[in-house]
Write a structure and sequence with these properties.
Elements lengths: L1 H28 L4 H6 L5 H10 L6 H13 L13 H36 L4 H15 L2 H15 L24 H39 L2 H8 L4 H9 L4 H25 L5 H10 L3 H29 L10
Length: 330
Amino acid sequence: MARYAVRRLVQSIPVLLGIATITFLLINAIPGDPIRIMVGPNADASMVEAIRAQYGLDEPIHIRYVTYLGNLIQGDMGRSIHFGQPVSQKIAERLPVTLLLLVSSFTFAIATAVPMGVISAQKRNELPDHVSRILGLIGVSTPSFWIGLMLIIIFSYHIQLLPATNLIMPWADPSTVDGASNAVDVFVTSIEHLIMPTITLGTLQMAAIMRVQRSSMLEVLQQEYVQLARAYGVRERTILRKHAFRNAQLPVITIVGLQITTALGGSVLTETVFNINGMGRLIITAINNQDYPLIMGTTLFFGVMFVIGVIVTDLSYAYIDPRVTYDEVD
């Protein structure tokens, strides 16, 4: 498996090179001048040219492309034009917030979708199945930003139960959090801030995973070995737990891995709706200011996260199903 993982990492290099190249070309094809946006329309022309030379924007595009790739190989994503800081530093500052949001949303999605999918398959065409299917249909067809806005109107504006903006990290210093005197208060405050963004971002994942879990369980429950177990008088709960559930997880793992891309895209809208300073708002800020290095750096970083997610998904197959092997002979 280790050799397979190394081979997949090597195979991902052309993918990442393609992402970097396409992003570079698209960014440089956008009309507008990021230096003019930064200094304003009335800035002195000599100062504009000096700043443009400072960021290497006065060079021909092919030289900038070669320089960009050379710096990228050395781990240098460039310097943000808008923030005046290294791109890697801005990503490191915002990444924990987005990771917390992604982990909480996937935890919510998996914890609710898997039981619902199993129960729905077990109670096919009964009330629990109808309820699960309706929830799944609503989840996949409702925009995440609309869910976020409705949650804010209900639970923040009318009921005034949960905060509508910002996200407090669970490990934040109590002195920096309003109303918190110790670590427990910070943790409770963090949970209160996290509930609505988690539901907003996790609803689509929950619906997609639940639908796949249901269909996969239905397929497994119709297999001959399951029918044989029933004929021998094995209890239905035992059949579900020991014989059906694990064999039905391969499609679920696939959809969870693919949902990483959807969650990364959804985090942009969710962070914008709830005014959370994560990677999503960082990308929005970079685009609004035509911050070339920051746009390319964040896009490439999202690409790396997606590639890693796909590789982890592939490796999980062998753990779930021992018949899956990565031996080159097979």
